[in-house]
Amino acid sequence: MPTKTDILDLYFMDSRAKLLDIASYLDRLDRHEGETDFRQEGFINALQTMLETKENRAAAVLNTLSDHSTEPEEAATIQVAYGAPQNHENGSPEPQITSN
Amino acid sequence: MHYIEPHAHMVSRTTADYQQLAMAGCAALCEPAFWAGYDRASAQGFYDYYRQLTEYEPARAAKFGIPHYCWLCINPKESEDAGFAREVLQIIPDFIDKPNVLGIGEIGLNKNTKNELAIFEEHVELAKKYDLPILIHTPHLEDKLKGTKLIIDALKNANVDPARVVIDHVEEHTAGIVLDAGFWAGMTLYPESKCTAARAIDMLETFGMENIWMNSACDWGISDPLAVVKCALEMKKRQHSIKTVQKVIFENPARFLKQCKNFVLPETP
After folding, report:
1. pTM here?
2. Mutation site for B-interface testing, chosen from A7, A11, A13, A100 by largest number of B Cβ within 10 Å
3. Which CATH architecture group holds B3-257?
């Protein structure tokens, strides 16, 4: 089994780069005009969840970004997913097409 | 190293990709029926697609020594129109006896609707009628958790043997639900919307190496037909033994696929 140092050697630089991408993404959003929508609310909630959770962080983040309703929807109004549970009051952004 | 690619949409890929797969050690490849990126205009479009999956793609793969298998269905995105989906379902039995057909798939849910669920259940009945294994697509992103739970409930209600069902595209929040219920789990190495190699290996280390496989699900989106073999390389970096790597990328999919009457264990070095 690899040690913590082995894991750092394998993944620290990659994770550092991804962390900086998130930081610059947040700055980029702030710099630009207009309003964010439910996706950003979900993103911030997921970041907080990640920091507050002490184990199984990936599952916790995914759960934060999931629809927790239990009944089947009456009908599909769109074919795509957004990546965060939708707040209908904020309207629908242009969706990203998810293939497989 | 040799491996099985259990989920690849080769109709969307170039012949050069078959060449790369062969050179990377791909010993067999399985192609589930899926969404073309647009909704087909008629059921006849699916007839042509099933011919492509059962005639053209096996021939193209054979040029590189790769046995090609397929799964048949109408995908959940096009199942929202239940009348249309039922027309397509009537075509499927015409192809079930083709020599490269493994079973019914990839069926499942997309937006977790009543119509999608009804057509999913009708596919399950078709699989039961013809005694075929099932490959399941779980929904994308925010819809995955709910969809996975609805799918498992439906399968339990249908009294399907979970050992003959693989539930694909699991992530950290659904892998345990799937495996604990006795189903096989598939991890899809499709970084933007599914998981990375690093996360897939984390799941193997967390949930165990049994009844689980990984696939590229390479298609017309940004995807990598060599994702499985690249993940195998990352497993080696994580100090997993060659034996463990071979178990995950060859023996596990072989063990599940041997339940399909048309699957022949590929010859390997």
Report:
1. 0.96
2. A100
3. Alpha-Beta Barrel (3.20)
